[in-house]
Amino acid sequence: MLYTIIFGLIALLLFVLIGYNIIEQYKQKAEAEKRITMSKQRAIITEVDELLLNATKIPFTKSLLLIMQNRIRNALLTMVNLFPSTPAIREHLTNTDSQIKQIRENYTTPDSNSFRTPEDNKEALALLQVTKKIRAVLRSEHAKGKISTDIFVAEAQQIEMMQLKINLENSIKRINESKAAQQFGSANQMINRVLKAIDSVPTKDNYLQNKEQQLKQYAEEIRSHLVKTSNEELQAIQKKESENKNDLDALFAERKKW
């Protein structure tokens, strides 16, 4: 009887230990998943904050700005659900709600012509990276059902326009460099490619129209220069041939008898 009680207590103790270990493993797994989720949400917030820093360089529409702020808000809500007693997260959420309200009531989408020209190739490449990240955010929010298809399409078109303008400015700088180096063939090829890209845009704003005229003027200048150069080279060749002919005439002219 005593052995039965002892074995029973041992079995109960083992059961309790196993149960305790299972519960502890579950808690540890849940905490690890929380930390992973928190890390992902912080990364989302950091990425959006970095994108918003470029709002002065790339004209953000009101819709795009709200999409970005709501992406931050959704990340903060997830964090609050995981750690509801953290004051810093709740304060951040409150500030984000205030910014969203401010944007809805007071923000006006900048004119498309307010696009600021990249200062150099490095800045142009950096801005292109920004536009690619914005496109990725739009795809993610659309896939989650956070934004409608109409808004997604409209914002995607705006980003494509920004990418075109950035590439356009970068190309014009390279065209001017080629012209300065008298590499007119390369300059002319770039002009034709850029004009073809602009021509594919169904509705051109004043910015694109002005750039189109500028590039066409460049093309005409290069054509005139090449024609002038060809004429000058032809005249030089004709002059040289004439001089050679005179020399031959003088060489083989009939000799006077003494």
Proportion of residues in extended strands: under 5%
The structural class is mainly alpha
Mean pLDDT: 81
> What is the H-and-E element order?
HHHHHHH
Distance between the termini: 160 Å
Query: Can you tell me the overall shape?
Result: elongated
- The count of DSSP E runs of length 2 or more, i.e. the number of strands, is 0
- Mind summarizing the main beta sheet? none
Helix percent band: over 70%
What's the alpha carbon Rg, rounded to whole Å?
A: 35 Å
Number of helices: 7
* Poorly predicted parts: 243-258
Offer a few descriptive terms.
elongated, 0% strand, disordered C terminus, mainly alpha, single chain, 258 residues
Task: Explain how this protein is built.
The chain has 258 residues and is mainly α. The chain has seven helices and no strands. Helix 5 (149-180) packs parallel to helix 7 and helix 6 (184-199) runs antiparallel to helix 7 (206-252). The protein is elongated, with a radius of gyration of 35 Å.
In short:
The protein is mostly helical. The protein has helices at residues 2-52, 62-82, 87-106, 121-143, 149-180, 184-199, 206-252. Among the domains are: 32-116; 125-201, no CATH class.
